[in-house]
Design brief:
single chain; about 350 residues; alpha/beta; two-stranded antiparallel ribbon; 10 helices; about 40% helix; globular
């Protein structure tokens, strides 16, 4: 049965242009939008975002950093060696964070069952006080904190399946018990963080979960990781909202990763998250676009996940880990077994 699923985006985010040859190019979002408009998904509808407010950004970012971003509006400049800005980039960053907020408000209010914020620049590398790794504002963190501070959600789960570790999301929440951050990522790989031993700080130990993975893992490995680790941890945490930092650079054709995930594999992961949301969080799940740099693989994978959000049956993937996947699960389980029944 089709679900009422919101696709949140704006063409003006295409105006964020970091220059020729930059992997995080406008062509990424254009490929996604073209694919979704060419093959509409039953049960999905489009909605424009509202830009994030300063209040929403300041819940997770230092005032001096937000002021630095604001001062770059209308300029060609850079916030980081990997984060270039064009004159329209700051407005795009406000829209990206606002898209995440708009999507969360829709699913929490019941205006939509599920949502996908199709945004750029991405967000999961952005730290409290700096831009980093193609990211300006920490979109998922802004959305999670808005759900907590303004919408009354007591427990939020952030799942990050990007090929790169979501260092920003981890560091913003690693001392908190109300937002659990679950990361799967290639390791060693940029940005170098995300060891299994990074489990959170103080009495929030266990509310940061890292599953570093060797290169070369595919659909079955990821399905096994999510079955063996995410599902039992989520069942015990019992989130009221699930956010997914949905990076598609683990795709087998992606130039910035060494994984072997297919569009079916991502759709299967999306199905796992949706099933958890249906059982634990009143169906409330929001995907937020992060990485993914092979245009065909990115567009296909986003379309496949959007179809699952809208009620399509996820492709079946046997959760059978390779030796490398099994070793990664054992390491993560050993680091988390003091905090969760695994």
């Amino acid at each position: 049965m089709p679900h009422d699923t919101l696709l949140v985006s704006a063409d003006s985010m295409l105006d964020h242009d970091q220059g020729p040859g930059h992997p995080e190019s406008p062509a990424r979002l254009r490929a996604i939008l073209d694919r979704l408009h060419a093959s509409p998904i039953a049960g999905a509808r489009w909605a424009p975002p509202t830009p994030a407010t300063r209040e929403q950004l300041l819940r997770v970012h230092d005032p001096a950093f937000v002021a630095e971003v604001d001062a770059a509006r209308g300029l060609y400049t850079a916030l980081d060696p990997d984060v270039g800005l064009a004159p329209a980039s700051v407005d795009a960053a406000y829209l990206a964070a606002g898209s995440a907020v708009s999507a969360v408000e829709a699913v929490v209010s019941g205006a939509a069952r599920r949502a996908f914020a199709l945004v750029r620049p991405p967000g999961h590398h952005a730290e409290r006080e700096r831009a980093m790794g193609f990211c300006v504002f920490a979109n998922a963190a802004v959305a999670a904190e808005h759900a907590r501070a303004a919408l009354g959600r007591e427990r939020v789960l952030i799942v990050d399946w990007d090929v790169h570790h979501g260092n920003g999301s981890q560091h913003i929440f690693e001392g908190r018990r109300d937002v659990l951050v679950f990361n799967t990522h290639q390791h060693p790989h940029y940005p170098g963080t995300g060891a299994a031993s990074e489990v959170g700080l103080g009495d929030a130990r266990g509310f940061t979960v890292n599953v570093p993975l060797p290169g070369g893992l595919g659909d079955r490995d990821y399905a096994a990781v999510y079955r063996d680790l995410l599902v039992p941890i989520a069942e015990q945490f019992r989130p009221e909202l699930i956010l997914v930092s949905a990076g598609f650079d683990p795709h087998r054709d992606d130039p910035l990763g060494d994984m072997e995930v297919t569009s079916d594999g991502f759709a299967n992961l999306c199905g796992t998250v949706c099933e958890l949301a249906d059982r634990l969080a009143g169906g409330r799940v929001v995907l937020l676009l992060e990485g993914g740099y092979d245009l065909h693989g990115l567009a296909d994978s986003v379309h496949a996940c959007a179809a699952v959000l809208a009620g399509s049956t996820p492709p079946a993937v046997a959760p059978t880990a390779s030796p490398g996947g099994e070793a990664a699960i054992r390491r993560a389980r050993a680091s988390q077994s003091a905090f969760w029944r695994l």
